[in-house]
UniProtKB/TrEMBL annotation:
Keywords: Chaperone, Coiled coil, Cytoplasm, Stress response. This is Protein GrpE. InterPro entries: GrpE (IPR000740), GrpE_CC (IPR013805), GrpE_head (IPR009012). PANTHER family: GRPE PROTEIN, GRPE PROTEIN HOMOLOG, MITOCHONDRIAL. The keyword Coiled coil applies.
Length: 180
C-alpha cells in the first residue's frame, strides 16, 4: 500500500509539475498576447485620433471653402448690379431742376435708395477716391491729367465710383490722375 501511495504522489508531483510548466507556458503566451493586443489597441487609438483630426480639418476647410464660394457668388451678383446703380445715379444727377418735382423722378430716386440700402445691408460700400493718393489696388487710372493740373499721382477726378465688400475691393474706382 505504501508503494501505491508513493506512486500516486509521484504522479501528483509529475502532474503538478506538468501543470506548473503548462501554467507558466500559458501565462507567458497570455502576456505575449496581451502585449500584442496593447500594441494593436494603441495603433487603433492613434489611427482614430488621426482620423478625427483629418475630419476636423476637412470640416474646417469645407466651411472656409463654402464661405469663400458664397462671397464669390455674392460679389459676382453685386458686380452685375453696380452698373445699374451707376445708371440710376447718373440719371438722377442729370435730371433738370424743373423735372425733379415730378412723381416719376421721385419714384426713380426711391428705387436708387432701395438699391443702395440693399448694398449696405450686404456689406457693400462705395469709397471716396477724389483727392486721394493714387493706389492701383483701389483705383483704375483711365486718364492722366495732361494740363499739369493737380498734384502728381493724386486722383483729380472720379469717373466711376469704387466699391468694397468688407475689406476687399469689389470694383476699383475709374479715375483721372494728376501729372504734377
Amino acid at each position: 500500500m505504501e508503494e501505491t501511495t508513493k506512486q500516486t504522489n509521484q504522479e501528483t508531483d509529475s502532474t503538478g509539475e506538468a501543470v506548473t510548466e503548462t501554467t507558466v507556458r500559458t501565462v507567458e503566451e497570455l502576456e505575449a498576447l496581451l502585449v500584442e493586443e496593447q500594441k494593436k489597441s494603441a495603433e487603433l487609438a492613434d489611427n482614430w485620433k488621426r482620423s478625427l483630426a483629418d475630419f476636423q480639418n476637412l470640416k474646417r476647410r469645407t466651411e472656409i471653402e463654402r464661405a469663400n464660394l458664397n462671397a464669390d457668388v455674392k460679389s459676382r451678383v453685386i458686380l452685375r448690379l453696380l452698373p445699374i446703380v451707376d445708371d440710376f445715379e447718373r440719371a438722377l444727377s442729370s435730371t433738370p431742376d424743373n423735372l425733379k418735382v415730378e412723381p416719376w423722378v421721385n419714384g426713380v430716386s426711391l428705387i436708387e435708395k432701395k438699391l443702395k440700402t440693399l448694398l449696405d445691408q450686404e456689406g457693400i460700400s462705395s469709397f471716396d477716391a477724389k483727392d486721394a493718393d493714387f493706389d492701383p489696388r483701389f483705383h483704375d487710372a483711365v486718364q492722366r491729367d495732361e494740363d499739369g493740373n493737380g498734384d502728381k499721382d493724386i486722383v483729380t477726378e472720379v469717373y466711376q465710383k469704387g466699391y468694397m465688400m468688407g475689406d476687399r475691393v469689389l470694383r476699383p474706382a475709374a479715375v483721372k490722375v494728376g501729372r504734377g
